[in-house]
Amino acid sequence: MSIFTNKNIEDALLNSKKVAIAGHIRPDGDCIGSCTALYMYLNECRKELGLERVDVYLEPFGEEFNILSGTEHIRHTSDNDEVYDVFISLDSSSPDRLGFAIKYFESAKKRICIDHHITNVFFADINHVVADASSTCEVLYNLMDNSRITKDIAKSLYIGIVHDTGMFKNSSTSDKTMEIAAGLIRKGIDFTRLIDETFIQKTYMQLQIMGRCLMESQVLLGGKVIVSSIERKVLDFYGASFGDLNGIIDQLRTAKGCEVAIFIYETNENEHKVSLRSNSIVDVSKIAYYFGGGGHIKAAGCTMAGTVQDIINTLTPHIEEQLRAGNAL
């Protein structure tokens, strides 16, 4: 029985002694879930594939994801000069999104990209990109042999799907997504706990920051756009990390009458991360891609230079153009 449904991927991994896995910068639930799921799956099939070593590289992430097995083995720095036989990029639309792990991608003998972003630039030797999938975890599930998916692997895959679909609310959710989720639940996972502890629950500090961002938000273009931002010094005041900002953009999007939500946070001096969400008309992936980022039609992001007001002034005409084309203004 095959280990992967994609023969090219299986052949590339066969007898590859050293394998590296990495996801995108500022890893989210789908990134963490897919990386830990594949890490465990490869270890389950280690003997059949002839693997000797599997390493995972990700930037630090929130403690709530430690509920997943395999997180304890993730490396958060590139403090070795290992050359891998195969490098697998997960949930990254371009190589620059790999962050510090890019050195292992560049030196690897073979490179595989598994992703679901419509803006993926097909940057590896083998590219398995399913743009209409809800998440990279959904793509991975369809690559795996279901009989080899353990309860722990199922937990990771479920987390990724839940986070990228916004608990099955986003338009990327399909009947196939729901069928996969049901199959993972049948593996015996405590899905209620997984959702509560990684998606819904917030610390008091996180609630304070979210409340502040909501209170200081502003609307543009007749209420069609809602924008909020936070400076690095405010994060430092609360002792917060970027991971503590999860969920703010999705809360902004719930404003009645809003077509686009923008959340901007300072990453370095004169540099900001921009998250974009759309409710129906605007394709935010086109806007993000224009500014060097990427993502999906209704959820995308990019990094931009300048002040918050500079960024708002730059983005607004692109959003306005699409709103007018859709007769929303």
Automatic annotation (TrEMBL):
Residues 18-161 form the DDH domain. Gene3D superfamilies: 3.10.310.30, inorganic pyrophosphatase (n-terminal core). GO terms for molecular function: nucleic acid binding. Residues 223-314 form the DHHA1 domain. It comes from the Bacteria. It holds the Pfam family DHH. Transmembrane segments: none annotated. This is Phosphoesterase RecJ-like protein. It comes from Herbinix hemicellulosilytica.
